[in-house]
Specification:
6 domains; Transferase(Phosphotransferase), domain 1; alpha+beta; 4-stranded mixed beta sheet; Phosphorylase Kinase, domain 1; elongated; 658 residues; Trypsin Inhibitor V, Chain A; 6-stranded antiparallel beta sheet
């Protein structure tokens, strides 16, 4: 572990040791503190985590793979972000990768290899039925437990890396070139049959101890996957059963249409082989050797005929008759020989002998209509082998592949295989509005449609994060499979604080919940305009845009305030009656010295406790109003006020409450 690698991820997964390092991530043995169990923690390299588009693809692929539950698939438990990178948490498999077994034990016994490959095919069949293609089947991604159980790992990682890129970019081959299919090498669309090809390569390596193609660079290996046929397994190890060789070669056919139609078909053939039954895979064709044709001259023919005649005494007439017959036979034989020679010369010219043309350029017919393609190939003195597959919206009723391609030459009469796409099958577009974007993508994939997910911002109170709010074409319409369906889903969801001023506190709370917001702190305040119990204001303010789920603070009215009355000059009884009559509380303060005769014995000063309110200002109901009775300045009165406040010698002061 490097010093920059955190020892605990998500506060839950404690790293113990590094167990592997691959092209996209480092794998650690970790301990799940919460569930007290060992797990495998795969940490992506920081350069991948910095790519936001990759992280989004990785998230979706991890979610899709996490939904796979099969005995031969390593399950994904969790995934998340920590620091500046992302990680996934998988079951820890106590065993070793198949690559290690191949290095130490290959060639592996045929039945044992077939059993292991059948288990991998089971895992692939399950994943393919759930819309997940592995794209990187190789010995390093196949784990063998100590009790012999086979488990496949790393579903979806290859797609996350190369989902939007071609298989080759600037000479760099994405993926594991030794094991990927010809269509991957060419950057073409892949499906479950690409996994079948890769499994065939793995099985080839298990039983022969070597890979079918080698090279100095990934590009060189990729070229061989596309253009060259591998040595047959039995040419390397003659004891390999021919039935197993047939299974390997069919799974490694260059054209997807010539491989097994599904991983389950391949598994069934492997099971037949293990049980000693006849497999359905066609055995490799042996080199054809036709019968030799001997060409002889008329003189040789006559000599051979003469040599077969019995020795006997003949009359002169008989000799003449036989001589005449011999001449007739010689003439007939000569004519036959001439015809045979002409036939040989003509046939030889067609094969490039006797001055005839031997090789012809292979025309490129991909993208043509079938009739035009057939005509072009026949014009080139080659023969046509036409095979049909189900079409898509983009390629129906056209040639979508040929073998060999149109970049070389072939001997006259050699076959050119063309793959013709038929009419695209149709289906109803699933209705995915209001579903999460992950569910929508899964439904569209299973229905046979391509999809494009577009994130949009939304301020509607009726939508949620990651919810699909728009679909084009609309759900329910029957369209050819392969049609692109665009879905818009909510990302960075925001809402507007609703208008809840003058609503009751209960009404305001209900309106916030409906807008996917929460009630925050509630503060009470009096208001001259807002009735008791109604909302005066909010924070953030009404009409503000906030994130979904934010807390909104409320200020609720305690009713209108009370206007501070003027008590100066009133008698004590009048002042107390005025204060209490307004819903305020009266409190007598210490006497205050005055010089004005009219204030002696009456209220000479007043204030509201805890407030700077003046006469005419509004204060909260039940506020305390302190009043002071005026006395002559030289009376020397001391004592305690009716409110219990200490008093002192009364003197005139310009700020009696200061």
């Amino acid at each position: 572990m490097s010093q920059s690698t955190p020892s605990i991820y998500n506060g839950r997964y404690e790293l113990r040791s590094q167990i592997a390092r691959g092209g996209t991530a480092q794998v650690y043995l970790a301990h799940d503190i919460l569930l007290d169990r060992p797990v495998a923690l795969k940490v992506l390299y920081p350069e991948l985590s910095a790519d936001t588009s990759f992280v989004e693809r990785f998230r979706r692929e991890a979610q899709a793979a996490a939904n796979l539950s099969h005995p031969n698939i390593v399950p994904i438990f969790d995934w998340g972000e920590s620091g500046n990178t992302y990680f996934i948490v998988m079951e820890y498999v106590d065993g070793e990768p198949l690559s290690a077994l191949i290095r130490t034990q290959a060639p592996i016994e045929a039945a044992q290899a077939a059993n292991a490959a059948a288990d991998v095919a089971k895992a692939l069949s399950y994943a393919h039925r759930h819309g997940v293609v592995h794209r990187d089947i190789k010995p390093g991604n196949i784990l063998i437990t100590h009790d012999g159980q086979v488990k496949v790992t790393d579903f979806g990682i290859a797609r996350a890396i190369g989902a939007d890129e071609q298989a080759t970019q600037s000479g760099l081959v994405m993926g594991t070139a030794t094991y990927f299919s010809p269509e991957q090498a060419q950057g073409l669309e892949v499906d479950g049959r690409s996994d079948i090809y890769s499994l065939g390569v793995v099985l080839y390596e298990m039983v022969t101890g070597r890979t079918p193609f080698t090279g100095d660079t990934p590009v060189a290996i990729a070229y061989q996957h596309v253009r060259e046929q591998p040595p047959t397994p039995r040419s390397i190890i003659p004891t390999i059963p021919s039935a197993l060789e047939a299974i390997i070669l069919q799974s490694m056919a260059k054209l997807p249409a010539e491989r097994y139609r599904s991983a389950d078909e391949m598994r069934a053939d492997l099971d037949r082989f293990v049980r000693g039954q006849t497999v359905l895979a066609a055995p490799p064709q042996e080199a054809y050797s036709g019968p030799a044709t001997e060409v002889i001259s008329a003189r040789d023919l006559q000599d051979r005929l003469a040599a077969t005649a019995p020795a006997e005494e003949l009359t002169e007439q008989e000799l003449e008759r036989r001589a005449s017959n011999t001449r007739r036979w010689a003439i007939g034989a000569g004519a036959l020989v001439i015809a045979l020679i002409m036939l040989i010369v003509f046939g030889g010219q067609q094969l490039g002998y006797f001055g005839g043309k031997l090789y012809y350029n292979v025309p490129s017919v991909v993208g043509m209509r079938p009739a035009a393609a057939v005509q072009a190939i026949k014009t080139a003195k080659l023969t046509v082998v036409e095979r049909n597959v189900a079409g898509t919206v983009a390629n129906e009723h056209t040639v979508i592949a040929q073998s060999p391609d149109g970049s070389g030459t072939l001997r006259s009469g050699s076959p050119v295989v063309i793959i013709v796409a038929g009419a695209a099958p149709s289906a109803r577009v699933p209705a995915v509005i209001t579903k999460t974007v992950t569910v929508a993508e899964t439904l569209l994939t299973h229905a046979g449609f391509r999809w494009l997910a577009v994130p949009v911002a939304s301020v509607s109170a009726n939508t949620h994060q990651n919810e699909v709010i728009k679909e084009s074409p609309a759900g329910g319409v029957r369209l050819p499979k392969g049609t692109l369906v665009t879905i818009s889903y909510v990302q960075n969801h925001t809402v507007i604080v609703p208008k809840i001023a003058n609503d009751s506190q209960v009404q305001a709370g209900a309106a916030l919940v409906k807008a996917n917001l929460n009630v925050g702190t509630v503060t009470n305040a009096y208001s001259p305009t807002v009735p008791l119990g109604e909302v005066i204001s909010t924070s953030p303010a009404i009409g503000s845009t906030v994130k979904q789920g934010a807390s909104i603070d409320l200020t609720v009215s305690t009713g209108p305030g009370v206007v501070v009355p003027s008590l100066i000059g009133d008698s004590e009884a009048q002042a107390v009656a005025t204060i209490t009559g307004l819903g305020l509380r009266a409190q007598k303060g210490a006497p205050i010295g005055v010089t004005t005769a009219g204030y002696v014995g009456n209220v000479a000063a007043q204030r509201v406790v805890g407030s700077t309110a003046k006469v005419g200002d509004q204060v909260a109901p039940n506020s305390i109003v302190v009043y002071r009775i005026g006395v002559e300045t030289n009376s020397g009165t001391t004592g305690t006020s009716g409110a219990g406040f200490p008093t002192a010698t009364v003197t005139t002061t310009p700020n009696p409450f200061g």
